[in-house]
């Protein structure tokens, strides 16, 4: 077991790669009552074309299957998984994103037993035809819930605009039609390919003894048999071409029109330190341009064009990346123009040293605050790991950013051919 | 396990509550200002925190305040407005990074206390009242915020349910105010409500994090030590007994129906039975192994989200589910059957222990953040009925099956609300390809 010390943040992290390939990380935190554990596979909605374990030809599986599989993992032959965790004082949950499927619990007692339950239920699939059919009804309601949510529609609308072929453009949940076609065989293929321990990370944070927990995990894993480690061949092509569609508008009932502007990443294959630095630079530039203390926000707020802060963030994984800036405005076209104009102006004049220092300080504050939440650490840590980055390098990387780094991002990331605009308005009014 | 140690000091008419701990990477300051909910003040009070954040004498606009906060290592100022039963609570919160993690050592806590005091007590004025332009801007923003609740169908249904269920109680008023009041409120009216607030409302200041206790007390006493004329609020414990069940349908353009059912429990957090009531709610609809989850979702595939929750101050239990528009009758029927099952004691000792474990876990989870600690302590501090975490756990552990059955038998159906389709239909524009 390796021990990694992050002195500035007062954190110590333990790591070990087990014989079956599973990576285990433990972050002891004194004073906290709850322990969080996440058990995550590097498998999400974008992994829809791949060579199944043991075969040679690639297959394409139905949209939404990673999320469907997440739901179905809670099925167990003997016991109700929710109930079992509940009895052990834990609450369990799961999520599916573009690139990951994670299972997590939080508990203040019987932490060791809960870790075993987590490992055991995720490593023991149980699918029956009847329970698969039943799940289709439940997920159909989940899809309907999102369909009535304009923010969700706006988010996927702008992603669809940006990407022509990359499966990031497909809703994580799939469609009612696509999930209807899912079979037991499809689920088994996906499970066998992506839930091998060597494609997964177990992360535990809380008031725990790292030695003891590691021993428990080692024992649990060595008692199970897994096929040999194999590289997974994914047939997803990185997409760094200009935006697929420049502008699109849809109509649905909204209290005020929504405007989303996206900038697609040109170089979507960064990993490790390179990606960490790039991601933080884009985030700081977005803060400089659009945060509530920016000049643009002040102008739009005071003129009554905007009533609430803009939301913005940058997302990047291997193969795709984008910035999204969104807000509600009675004049969404004007808002999109203002966003473009702000960027163009800053591209000409640059940022001042004072503005940059303030923005970096602000980001450091945001990061430190987020480290208060074990829940947040538990969910984020694995995303960094899967992209070769270290979550605890964030503060020192932010402190190392220079004017030059930020000006370069401002110039290269925000260019017209890579921009797209997506608008939702209620056309009855 | 109980390391939450809040000490209270009274200065003039402010109650200061301190919890010194190294557990967090930030220090949180929270000021809570409390008064009775009323039709006359609800909308003005919803505007006040927004107006105060828009300028002080020293920092006369939002951007200057924001820049000051950014300079303090991204300190964050947040305001919130909530209902604690029939009381209307305004919250100001500033979080600052703990100095021990920064390269340059600066006294962020002191700066934050000074800034907060300025924001609350030294607003930017014009002719002795709030600045007209700021007031107009904040009225516009609030109007939009109220209207945008409709974009979140669950929140919209919950708001409508509250209006329908509490028609004769002040709790019917939404904490964020009403659009119709915005047309008539001017800088004068709002400033008058603000003055009343500063003079008469109860104020509680919480500080959670690592700090020097003596110097912190000194600063607070010098800032807030003056005498005010505080009117303490009494919790209102009168409720209307439902004569017959009320059913309300709202027809809108939606794909999914939102069903809310409200039962009176006649039990608030001040009652001894409240803990048994929480256990009853947990078995009934408060967790993924609950009756509602197992029957409405797992057995009949009627919903993705389904559950129930208690309103701690008002003695009401509400259940919600997102369902197909045409499964209303079936879902209501199944939900009512689960109520019967609870009242007849149709659950096992194992279910009981499981629910207690879940709630205890949730309790410990909630005190893992500064905000959680404060939100848990505040209503009890106001009502002078503080329970330690250990006492809560003890009480929870001793709840019996009989206690739960007794609690469930107090439930009385009051209102059923359904947000359903059949409103104006609108074909989506041809370009829309999502789903």
How many domains of chain B? The number is 2
One letter per element, helices H and strands E, the order of chain B comes to EEEHHEEHEEHHHHEHEEHHEEHHHHHE
Q: Cα-atom Rg of chain B, whole angstroms? A: 24 Å
Biggest sheet architecture of chain B: 6 strands, mixed
User: Which strand order do you get reading across the main beta sheet of chain A?
Assistant: 1-2-3-9-4-8-7
Shape of chain B: globular
The chain-level mean pLDDT of chain A equals: 93
CATH class of the largest domain in chain A reads: Alpha Beta
What is the CATH first-level class name of the largest domain in chain B?
Alpha Beta
Largest β-sheet summary of chain A: 7 strands, mixed
Number of beta-strand segments of chain B: 13
Which structural class fits the helix and strand makeup of chain B? alpha+beta
User: Which quaternary structure do these chains form?
Assistant: heterodimer
Mean pLDDT level of chain B: 89
Description:
- Chain B: InterPro entries: Metalloenz_LuxS/M16, MPP/UQCRC_Complex, Peptidase_M16_C.
- Chain B: This is Zn-dependent peptidase.
- Chain B: One of its GO terms (molecular function) is metal ion binding.
- Chain A: This is Zn-dependent peptidase.
- Chain A: It comes from Croceifilum oryzae.
- Chain A: Pfam families: Peptidase_M16, Peptidase_M16_C.
- The complex is a heterodimer of chains A (about 425) and B (about 425).
- Helix content of chain A is about 40%, strand content about 20%.
- Chain A is built from 15 helices and 14 strands.
- Chain A has two domains: about 1-220, Metalloenzyme, LuxS/M16 peptidase-like (Cytochrome Bc1 Complex, Chain A, domain 1), CATH 3.30.830.10; about 245-425, Cytochrome Bc1 Complex, Chain A, domain 1 (2-Layer Sandwich), CATH 3.30.830.10.
- In chain A, the strands form three sheets. A seven-stranded mixed beta sheet of chain A has the order 1-2-3-9-4-8-7, with helices on both faces.
- With about 425 residues, chain A is of the alpha+beta class.
- Chain B is of the alpha+beta class and about 425 residues long.
- Chain B has two domains: about 5-225, Cytochrome Bc1 Complex, Chain A, domain 1 (2-Layer Sandwich), CATH 3.30.830; about 245-420, Metalloenzyme, LuxS/M16 peptidase-like (Cytochrome Bc1 Complex, Chain A, domain 1, 2-Layer Sandwich), CATH 3.30.830.
- In chain B, about 40% of the residues lie in helices and about 20% in strands.
- In chain B, strands 1-2-8-3-5-4 form a six-stranded mixed beta sheet, sandwiched between helices. In chain B, strands 9-13-10-12-11 form a five-stranded mixed beta sheet, with helices on both faces. Chain B has a two-stranded antiparallel sheet with strand order 6-7.
- In chain B, a hairpin with a 4-residue loop joins strand 11 and strand 12.
- In chain B, helix 1 crosses helix 4, helix 1 packs across helix 7 and helix 12 (about 350-365) packs antiparallel against helix 14 (about 390-395).
- The N and C termini of chain B lie far apart (about 50 Å).
- At the A-B interface, helix 2, strand 7, helix 4, helix 5 and strand 10 of A face helix 2, strand 5, helix 4, helix 10 and strand 11 of B.
